[in-house]
Amino acid sequence: MSPLNLVPPPEPLLRAAHVTLEYRGERGIVRATEDVSFDVYERDRFVLLGPSGCGKSTLLKAVGGFIAPQAGSLTLAGKAITRPGPDRIVVFQEFDQLPPWKTVRENVMFPMLAGGVRRKEADQRARHWLGKVGLARFADAYPHTLSGGMKARVAIARALAMQPAVLLMDEPFAALDALTRRTMQEELQVLWEEIGFTMLFVTHSIEEALVVGNRILLLSPHPGRVRAELNSHQFSLASAGSSEFQAATQRIHGLLFGELERAAGGAGHPTKAINE
Ligand SMILES: Nc1ncnc2c1ncn2[C@@H]1O[C@H](COP(=O)(O)OP(=O)(O)O)[C@@H](O)[C@H]1O
Ligand SMILES: [Mg+2]
Asked: 168-218: per-residue pLDDT in tens?
């Protein structure tokens, strides 16, 4: 055996092992995901892709430390995730998560101040990250004066300013118009190339998964189980019209819905989004 074979594989930054997540309410138990396992490595752009209701947001909430698994485990750098922490920051779809009475800069500073960062440093970091997302000129503007895309940039700047180990994004561009959405996907890619953060990104759009991710975990409809895991680093917005991209889209659609369509007796048409 060559000595190279003895080098251990890198440890994942984030590991989900056999994670089952449930909600318990008056109407009984809702099982959101079942036996979901995946490993996210440093600098991954890891995408959870599946139809609405398959438990993507629930998985993200569990990684965020807001809910605990019924079975299985979630670890970050080898330590069990038991509560929310500044090493895992979530960007949501609703940009009205920005309090309207705070300026853009105050919005970006707020979680840093809450986490004990001194005002002067928080201010510097806010200005730095607003510059990175192209909003330096809007630091003193109020959120209601910004477009949807600009609010998305503020939310991203605010999250990255916290320097999380993993950036968690729950359909962050879903509420934007198609053109703005593309711009944001592109800007996210540019930021990632520059900074190299680690990201766990949730979407129900096959095209967005291929464009944003380097690895994609396909989840079955409710309750979410792992259907497959794919590499997608070769795709970007630039390749979105190519035949390879179309073939990957169709293959993913088949993996997600093949059984359902066979059961229904129809061939079905591959679509870009899973349930739009
Ligand atoms: N707070 C809740 N209480 C009970 N059931 C919930 C709650 N949130 C989500 N669910 C259910 O859990 C399942 C997964 O939801 P969710 O994680 O939001 O899916 P996705 O993000 O993939 O659309 C769905 O069946 C949903 O109805
Ligand atoms: Mg969701």
From this structure: 999 999 999 999 999 999 999 999 999 999 999 999 999 999 999 999 999
Let me know: does 62 contact 19? Beta carbons within 8 Å: yes
Q: Spell out the long-range contacts of 4-11 with Cβ–Cβ below 8 A and sequence spacing 24 or more.
A: 10/41, 10/42, 11/77, 11/78
The CATH code belonging to domain 9-81+201-276 is: 3.40.50.300
Would the CB of 55 count as within 6 Å of ligand 1? yes
Residue 76: strand, helix, or coil: strand
For residue range 19-31, list pLDDT tens digits in order. Answer: 999 999 888 999 9
- Assign 68 to helix, strand or coil: coil
| Band of residue 85 on the pLDDT scale cut at 50, 70, 90 | very high
Ligand with smallest separation from the Cα of 63: 1
Cβ atoms of 104 and 141 within 8 Å: the answer is yes
In this structure, which residue's CA is closest to atom 16 in ligand 1?
55
CA-to-CA separations, 202 to 52, 96, 182, 239, 269, in angstroms, rounded: 11, 19, 16, 21, 23
Query: DSSP assignment, residue 276?
Result: -
* Residue 201: burial class (beta carbons within 10 Å; 0-12, 13-18, 19+): buried
Choose the residue to mutate in 23, 31, 222 for probing ligand 1, maximizing ligand atoms within 8 Å of C-beta. Answer: 23
What local confidence, expressed as pLDDT, does residue 9 receive?
73
The residue type of 220 is: S
Q: Which residue has the CA at smallest separation from atom 25 of ligand 1?
A: 53
Express as a percent the part of the chain with pLDDT over 90: 81
Cα(274) to ligand 2 centroid in Å equals: 13
